[in-house]
Amino acid sequence: MIFKKYQWGLLSLLITACAFSQEKPELRLGGALRFNYNYSTWKDGQQDRGGDFGYDVFRMNAKGSYKGIKLNAEYRLYSDDFGGGMLKQGWIAYDFNPKDEIQIGLTQVPFGITQYNSNSWFFSLNYYVGLEDDHDMGVKFQHRGERLEYDVAFFKNAEELRFGANTDISDSRYSYDVSSIDLDGDGVLDLRNKEVNQVNAKVAYKLGNERVKHKLGVSGEFGGLYNLDTKKTGNHYAMAAHYELNTKRFGAKAQVAHYNNNPKNKEGETEDVVAMTAYGAPYLVASKATLYTVGLGYSIPVKWGPISNIHVYNDFGYMDKAIDRFNDSFMNVTGAMVTAGNVYTYFDFAAGKDQPWLGPEWTNALASGTDDANWEMRFNINIGYYF
Predict the structure, then answer these.
(1) Is 328 in a helix, a strand, or coil?
(2) Rounded distance, CA 226 to CA 238, Å?
């Protein structure tokens, strides 16, 4: 009897060992190469040339899994003027079951409509104040049920590339984070804050059927703003309510988001604005504002040679700044994304008022703005081969 038990135990051990030996690591590589053309109404020299066409980005993606542990990473290489090389995302995950997952690393902040609260290449106004497709360093748990979705997360800080005791964050990053800025060109940085110890929660509920799908959600975040000069920690918070509609061809996105930054700056520095940075260049943002965004899209299947689909859309955004003397910001993008095999091309007519990427004023557009600001327009074509 003892010998038979030993035989069965040995057989079970061999079966288990064989099962593990058959499991192999999986690694999938992908990426994209993109080029960009733009013609801007506020750039006289560029208009004389008929616009500019050049390199946008080369990116590499890696997804892997082994023994229940997953990897997801994306590295982007822009030109030096746009920040050079940067890690957009990079996290390790474990699936407890098909619905529940935990991620650790540089992962997307669960706030508002995700992955994107927009249809166009330009994103929405939320992106430019750090509230759309933001990625920070931390740990996130997510649940994806048939009806209910929720996320809870803790982020120790934004992307940290410098680990000194008193070092400012790097401008080379994909998503906008609170940062430092040289306001007067004297080589000394001002408004030196960092995001620290942020908690996030998001809940969404899905309604409808296979033909018409609705999603209602709310989001919130709260965290610290550590000032490198005063060594004091202020705070920041944001909240949002959002709605998504999807049918076979038509889609709609609507969101209201409110944020408030309360830094503890050194004496003499204003607390009405904070510095934010991405793509190698910081600017100022109003410390407190409410953003309203609406996006509509419609997909048209076609059979024009390699072209299989045209997605037309319009994204509108309004930034209502809390300080009365500040000028509000506006943004509207009307465009189409054309799908041809692995090539995706965005044709965008982007208009903005007091929007740094859509006008002559960079530093103060999202802060005090300009009293006599005009609506400016940028015609943009982004061509990308994705593999």
Answers:
(1) coil
(2) 17
